[in-house]
Amino acid sequence: MNKIPKLTPFLKAINLKKSHICHAVGITFDMKNKQSFILDLKDLVRSVLVALIFSLLLVLAFALIVRWASLDNKALVVGNYVIKFLSVLAGVLIGFKQRKNGILKGAILGLTFMLVTFLIFGAMEGFKGVSFNWLDLIFLTIGGGILGVIKVNLPTKKA
Question: Looking at residue 20, what is its pLDDT?
């Protein structure tokens, strides 16, 4: 059992075990959950990488379309949001192998994807004229959570 030094005296004072408090939020301190955490972490890393690769490919394709079609700024903004949404969707559908914690993993995916893409595309421009977009943060986090719930509740293929 892992020890939580600051929480243990409080739990002893109110005569509760650590698992009573932490079980409500899905945290326990045994080896099974450590393995589950590692599997969930692998899902997150895999899904973020899939979303990033998918995003880079879509940005390149969209840049070619913009160059050939001479699109205006409104089309660029809409295309940007569609690319972000499709990238998170691809990350969730391809990256999630474990069928649990969909909302949490999806929200973390959306948040991490937004922050990593902000850093990557900001670095490409030398961080000149780059501004943080709070709407991206909010909508990608919420959208990732919703997509995660949908993914973990999809029926599995039976062989």
Answer: 45
